[in-house]
Write a structure and sequence with these properties.
- This protein is mainly β and about 260 residues long.
- Helices cover about 10% and strands about 50% of the residues.
- It has a 16-stranded mixed β-sheet that branches.
- The longest helix has 19 residues, at about 1-20.
- The radius of gyration is 19 Å and the shape is globular.
- Mean pLDDT is about 90; it is low at about 1-20.
């Protein structure tokens, strides 16, 4: 098995190097993510998109991602709770993830959408439906892994921990829980840009870029991450002639979960 993994890694590195030059492969065992950069906080994002046929219309949603640190079974972990609000109740999504603080290895992941619960126990060699979670629609799910991987649903948090620098390219083995097998994704630092925040403060950011194909359609994604604080501030996506943006909101934005629970 170790020989197979080694060969796979060599193939990935060779193919990537032909297109992107030197590639840094982010593996769990190497612990290269800067986990100290991921700070406990409630981060909120305005997400909006425009389709080419609806130039006078915007699709809107609001994401809350609450990062906390705690200890479970004697091990330090991150817990990340997400709430996605949209224009109707059918788009409301609740996501909860647990990752080890040492290397951001996934331990548990659940998503609730339209009252359906998908919950998983996540290990280095497999992912299985959590049989202790009531009404879990994925209790019988199981998938073996050839290599340990990262939770693709937590890409924002993962990017904030990358050792970004000019000219760097990263290969990350991401997996979207419950879907197709994990895949290696390349992310390239394509430069830097100074952007303005809501209070007109100028922030120097790295621009991280990826592109690919989904169901026969090409897409590209660009992320702006501050050089000083490793803060994910902005994202611009292009696909099917449309655009989507994520913009981080100021700290004064209300915690909608707490507001609606009163």
């Amino acid at each position: 098995m170790k020989k197979i993994i080694y060969i796979i890694t060599l193939i990935i590195s060779f193919v990537a190097s032909q297109a992107y030059g030197q590639v840094d492969t982010i593996r769990l065992k190497d612990k290269r993510l800067l986990t100290s950069s991921l700070k406990p906080a409630l981060n909120q994002y305005l997400v909006y998109f425009q389709a080419p046929k609806d130039k006078k219309k915007l699709g809107l949603s609001f994401w809350l991602r609450d990062i906390k640190t705690t200890t479970i079974n004697g091990e330090k972990v991150f817990t990340i709770s997400q709430h996605w609000y949209g224009s109707d109740t059918n788009s409301y999504r609740v996501v909860y993830s647990i990752n080890k603080q040492a290397d951001f290895a996934p331990v548990y992941h659940s998503e609730t959408l339209q009252n359906k619960i998908n919950a998983y126990n996540w290990g280095p060699d497999k992912i299985t439906g959590a049989d202790t979670v009531a009404n879990n629609t994925r209790k019988g799910f199981a998938l073996d892994f050839k290599l340990p991987n990262f939770n693709w649903n937590l890409d924002i948090e993962t990017f904030e921990m990358l050792p970004l620098a000019a000219g760097k390219t990263f290969a990350i083995n991401f997996y979207d829980a419950g879907l197709s097998p994990p895949e290696w994704v390349l992310y390239k630092v394509i430069g830097s840009e100074i952007i303005s925040t809501l209070n007109s403060e100028k922030i120097d950011c790295w621009k991280l870029f990826t592109e690919g194909e989904y169901k026969g359609n090409k897409y590209s994604e660009t992320y702006w991450i501050s050089k000083k604080d490793h803060e994910f501030l902005k994202e611009q996506d292009s696909f099917n002639g449309g655009y989507r943006y994520k913009i981080k909101m100021i700290g004064a934005s209300p915690d909608l979960v707490q507001v609606f629970s009163k």
